[in-house]
Design goal:
Elements: H1 6-28, H2 48-66, H3 72-83, H4 113-138, H5 157-183, H6 187-197, H7 202-218, H8 222-242, H9 247-259, H10 263-276, H11 281-294, H12 297-310, H13 315-327, H14 331-344, H15 349-364
């Protein structure tokens, strides 16, 4: 992000080695996969995860250099793995943090690095491991006869063992991939898996609730819609309990409650979101709309006025504000607001129709 202080950049630098260690563990043992890996900023070099990542990186660099002549394919694989992680290191070019994460990490960042990793793994299984087995079998204790060379020929015991191990690893990786692809089948399945994998993550509950709410809008069965909305509400509440100061949770919950017809509860959520983020103009517009329905025209006018000040080019705030002024019997004050909206969107029907009615009401002295 812009405006990072030197201290922040150092923390990003140290945290990267934690991320590197995490990525390496995921490639070696992809048991716990989730879209919400939480990685806190490291405070310094002496954190165990930072030391582990740094040591692993140094070991791979040494391995790349050492294998340069004897096994160029291995050196190439290690180089691909390391270099393809540079763009996501986040301290060369810091990027915006998404979803409240201190340091953005994602399994999808491993698509390119996994190519290099796979090259190295293939060499280990095809060359290094059989050679080690052959050497172990060929080193006989004193007083024994060494195995004949013919027994260690191509496609001998070591190759069969290495091949069997490779098959087992491929089967395990295939099964894990199939399971993970089922999680990615839809937003609902993906975010449900995220809740199961990261039950203490507010973002997991927030995303799952949003997916449930979207699915509820698409269904035509009233009972199914009601059940989906209730599930979404429960997960919004779970998210709010984990991160009570996150305005987005309360705003999204307000939208859900408004959609479910729970105006009073929706108003409470919108006000909570605005308490945490007074500049949330859409929450003010939604709250103003609720207040109009409840008959609190002055309260609605105040919300629309604040939204208009926050975003002067937002036509919805101007038109809604003008509508409420007409409802309060002040059409002359509504006319310039409709005209401002039309200056921004000349084809806006609500502004054209409202302007016509406001002018008629102002000229006749009637209230519409």
């Amino acid at each position: 992000p812009e405006g990072l202080r030197p201290l922040d950049r150092w923390r990003l630098f140290w945290t990267w080695w934690s991320a590197f260690w995490l990525y390496l563990k995921l490639l070696v043992w992809p048991a716990k996969l989730t879209i919400l890996h939480q990685l806190e900023l490291a405070r310094g070099f002496w954190a165990p995860r930072v030391l582990a990542g740094t040591a692993a990186f140094a070991g791979l660099v040494w391995g790349c250099w050492h294998a340069g002549r004897r096994a160029p394919g291995v050196a190439f694989g290690i180089a691909v793995f390391l270099l393809s992680l540079v763009p996501v290191s986040n301290f060369l070019i810091p990027v915006s943090f998404q979803g409240g994460a201190d340091f953005p990490v994602a399994e999808r960042f491993l698509y390119a690095p996994s190519i290099g990793f796979s090259l190295v793994a293939a060499w280990l299984l095809a060359t290094w491991f059989p050679t080690r087995l052959r050497n172990a079998a060929g080193s006989s204790p004193r007083g024994t006869v060494a195995p004949q060379a013919g027994r260690n020929s191509a496609l001998g015991g070591p190759e069969i063992v290495a091949g069997a191990l490779a098959v087992l690893l491929l089967l395990a990786a295939t099964a894990r991939t199939d399971t993970r692809l089922r999680d990615w089948k839809s937003d609902l399945s993906l975010f449900h898996a995220a809740v199961s994998d990261s039950p203490d993550s507010y973002l997991a509950h927030l995303n799952y609730a949003a997916a449930r709410a979207e699915a509820a809008e698409a269904t035509t069965d009233p009972d199914s819609r009601r059940a989906m909305l209730e599930t979404a509400r429960q997960h919004y509440l779970e998210a709010a309990e984990i991160a009570p100061e996150n305005f987005r949770i309360h705003y999204d919950l307000g939208n859900l409650l408004r959609s479910a017809g729970q105006a009073e509860a929706a108003e409470t959520s919108y006000r909570q979101a605005l308490r945490l983020n007074p500049g949330l103009h859409q929450a003010r517009i939604n709250l103003g709309t609720l207040l109009v329905r409840e008959g609190d025209l002055e309260g609605a006018l105040d919300q629309f006025e604040q939204a208009d000040r926050l975003l002067p080019r937002l036509t919805a705030a101007k038109v809604n504000r003008a509508h409420v002024l007409q409802m309060l019997g002040r059409p002359a004050e509504a006319i310039p607001l409709y005209e401002e909206a039309l200056a921004l969107e000349p084809d806006l029907f609500a502004a054209r129709d409202g302007l016509r009615r406001a002018k008629n009401a102002a000229s006749s002295g009637k209230v519409e």
